[in-house]
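Need tokens for this chain, all 209 residues.
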Amino acid sequence: MVHDVAALVTAGGQGSRIRELGVEKPLVHVLGRRLVDRAVDIVGSAPSISRTYVSVSRFTPNTEDHLQGQTVQVIHTKGEGYVPDLQEAMRVIRERSVLICPVDMPLLTVAGIEGLIHEYKRRGEPSLTVALPPQVVIDLGLDVTYSEPIDGKEMTFCGVSVVEREAMLRDHFVAGGYYVTEDPNFAVNVNSKRDLTVAESILKARENP
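Here are the structure tokens for all 209 residues:
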């Protein structure tokens, strides 16, 4: 079977909210493993993913160094903003569709990624964005920083999506659908020490049931 979905781990942001840890966000350790290594391993283990790319920028030079020699393709972007950097990365990627995965989500699972990609292919829309009821985040003891109504229900977002590469290159906004889930593994973005503590607590419980 020929796969046509690449994974793009976005690791070029400024990470301003987690600078207190004194290290670039992608290099933050979560239970002894760096965020970027966890992200690369998870997306690379998903059967639907054919190739893994990691985007870096001038804000994450140590991350770029860390990735040298690994089995991923590193894309250096200019660090001019989320959408411009995404489009810059899309010009390098050659696969038809791309799973966009923020580097700061250590709870992601292969099952969660595969479920999203399966639904993306089933619907046939140019993009599919993960959306969660805010209560899922609140129940984990975390703050909801942004939400908006979707079909009359308030939803928040984690930054994970699957997009048609050429559609992303055509416009800053790609119309598509939402993958509404209550899976808590999509609910934790590590942006602070508090987020890190919650992530580590959940991972410890997962690994030692």
